[in-house]
Specification:
By secondary structure, the protein is an alpha+beta fold. It contains five helices and eleven strands, in the order ββββααααβββββββα.
């Protein structure tokens, strides 16, 4: 029973040898599941964690937990960094049943595994302190992009933040979001954690530059007194 690097799969062979000479070799019809898992784990260690079914959902849960470890060092959040996960694969073993090939590893749902590892109370705590999305003044629910070791990022069109005086923050208001303020075409025009400063100093220049380029969109004189909108408004008017 071994991991075959060339075939990228577990192989189970019965061999009969005379000294260094192999007399017969045949595939084994029945093998113990635990032996297959052990050989598969050997393969995973050789290939690295990249061979698993990573997707955005899994990476975001990992990043949210790792960020919370930094923001709340006394809260005893589990360590889900790649190095720790790779050092001890016991968390993965229960999900390897029926898998013997590298190309089958992609079907493992890591997001669900990580969520299960957290447990119900931790899941609820993560949803409160490091939410997956945030509702902006326009009513849109926008996904937060978590990055390990960096501020969480929120990419949002300027018009959807009209009326919001301060930068949104998470983790009990202690972690401000890094705002990527977007044009109507969803192109970044400003990156800031100081929304109040942007309204005061940056917005007049942005308005001057983009109003002619996007005349159908809303460019009020005072963004703090304006109604936040998702789409196009043909007339520029302020709402007190």
């Amino acid at each position: 029973m071994e991991w075959d690097e060339k075939m990228a799969r577990v192989v189970a062979m019965r061999r009969e040898s005379l000294g260094a000479i192999m007399v017969t070799e045949a595939a084994m019809a029945e093998v113990a599941p635990e032996a297959v898992r052990a050989a598969l784990l050997t393969g995973i260690r050789r290939m690295g964690l990249a061979c698993l079914g990573w997707n955005r959902a899994a990476r975001q849960i990992q990043a949210r937990v790792q960020c919370l470890r930094t923001w709340q060092p006394d809260a005893d959040w589990p360590d889900l960094c790649d190095e720790v996960l790779m050092a001890d694969l016991t968390w993965l073993e229960p999900y390897l049943t029926g898998i013997s090939k590298a190309d089958q590893l992609g079907r493992i749902d890591l997001a669900t595994i990580f969520t299960t590892l957290l447990g119900w109370e931790r899941q609820q705590q993560m949803a409160r302190e490091a939410p997956e999305t945030i509702i902006v003044p326009s009513g849109s629910k926008i996904r937060i992009d978590y990055r390990i070791g960096e501020p969480p990022l929120l990419a949002v069109r300027i018009q959807e933040l009209f009326g919001l005086a301060e930068t949104p923050a998470i983790c009990g208001g202690t972690v401000p979001l890094l705002l990527h303020l977007l044009s109507p075409a969803r192109r970044p025009i400003q990156v800031t954690t100081d929304l109040a400063g942007f309204w005061q100093r940056g917005y007049p220049e942005v308005k001057k530059e983009l109003k002619g380029r996007y005349p159908k969109h809303y460019w009020p004189e005072d963004p703090l007194l304006a109604e936040p909108i998702r789409g196009v408004r043909r007339t520029n008017r302020s709402a007190a």
